[in-house]
What does this fold into?
Amino acid sequence: MIADRIVLTLAATAVVVVAGWAYLRLGDRALAALPHGAYRRLVPWLFAGPAVAMVLLALAFPAVVTVGWSFVGADGGFAGFANYAQTLSDEVTRIALRNTVLWVMLLPSLAVLAGLAIAVLAERVRYGALVKAALFLPIAISAVAAGVIWSFMYDYQPSGAAQTATLNAVVTALGGEPVAWIVDAATNNYALIGATLWTQAGFAMVIFDAALRSVPDELLEAARLDGASEWTAFRHVTLPFLMPTVVVVATTMTVTALKAFDIVYVMTNGNYGTDVLSTVMYRALFTAKDNGLAGAVATILMLTVVPIMVFNVRQFRRESGAA
Amino acid sequence: MTAEAVRVRPAWWRRIPVHLVVAGVAVIWAVPLFGLVISAFRPSWAVLSSGWWESFALPGDYTLENYRRVLDRDGMALSLFNSLAVVVPATVLTVALGAAAAYALAGMRFRLRSAVLLTIVALIIVPIQITLVPLLRVFNALDLTGSFLGIWLVHLGFGLPFAVYLLHNFFAAIPRELFEAAEMDGASRGQIFFSIVLPVARPALAALAIFDFVWTWNDLLVALIFLGGFRDVAPMTVAVSQLVASRGDGWEILTSAAVLSVLVPMAVFVALQRHFVRGLLAGVSKG
It folds into this structure.
């Protein structure tokens, strides 16, 4: 079986490369036989056509169908907003909505804070490169592996037993009572957001790190010569320069928070009041097998990203000018 | 240099808060990884009775037994290769179709060009959950669920908006004179694409490929839905999440499975991090 997989990997890759090359070369040559005007009109679609078709088939059409489905009842007839009413009146969805709001408030702000703080402060200590590496590595770690790592960090043994998990060992060493981080409703959502922050803060740091290099040194120098403290210089010179980057990081993390699924699925599967919209939707799709209901939850999820989508498109139009 | 010279070094005690924040963050970020890697090499009785940090007091206590047990596990070694069979072709497909489309959008003028571009920018952040219900039905009807072809196509569709956006930003920065000179010489679009655009854009293609590789490798949701029910094609993320869900194993097994699942993307990432960072930066700002 393993040999099969290796052969499949190599063969599929070779087929894609050869077929892609042949398609563009032969297509280009065939179109070149046409009059010049027709060639110039058609050749963009030779190149963009396959990608546009895939995006329409895999994303755009299914999205429209899902929205349509969210108005179809379990009996197959038009149900108006019944699916929405049903899901929104459900306690589970309400908890998921509350949690999603919590994710959206905490993850972007904490990621900006941690990423910015380390990007700025790592320059000022000799072991800065080490700190950056510590934040950077988890970027490559899947949410599944991060789920294992943090479940292990948060593991709980009853008071009195040996605490073999890091966090509770620290808590009990400091004289506290062990906490069931993942089960306790007072801590579990924060625990999940914290685990996600651990994988995401490196992204924020890398982006801030690059943006910091665009801050003109002369301005900072001038501020310092005028007697500004490091904090004042940061607050009035560096931060204004970084504002666009803060917005970029915050919107990216907001989308990450809205889409959160893997880490919740692995660590709690939505139990103990930790559901988010994605896990509710997954269960509606697979456990309840209710397409209308799943469609309604997915549409609610979709609506939450629309403002960011509009913002991104406007930003892109402004930056590229031409589009 | 001048900035350093002008800056008066503050008294050592005023720098304590900086050290506290930086070292504190470094410890919080590094400790979970240490705990993972060390526990994955500890025998199960040790993991049950003591914390990973206590293993430093018992040198020679480490073992490779956990990895042998994980790999002997039904399909775990196969899952590693399933991940490769999912990820490599999906990544190559995404980069190939993305590059062709990005060239058309950045280097040619045609009707609907800006409409296509704006639609793609809008679709980058669409939650894929919105597409799952209809896609799954179509895939079931076409018997594509549980097949590698099926998941390649899904990853391709979901990955393309970001790929086109990122490469478009790079291609748009290539001087237009380069294209125009080649056109004057009578080169066709296909020739320009293969002999000018692709070679010039090699760093961008590498950045996108690494990004896509790590992304696809780490995906759980798509694999769960389109391959999940079929154990013999399940990639690493699905296999590890099933191991967690079964709750029958100790931490030494879960941690070594997690280490195995992280090995490949981590190696790619660390070896090629400069490309990765470039891709990341181009993805969030204009390239």
About this structure: Chain A touches chain B through 128 residues (CB under 8 Å). Chain A has two domains: 2-69, 83-320.
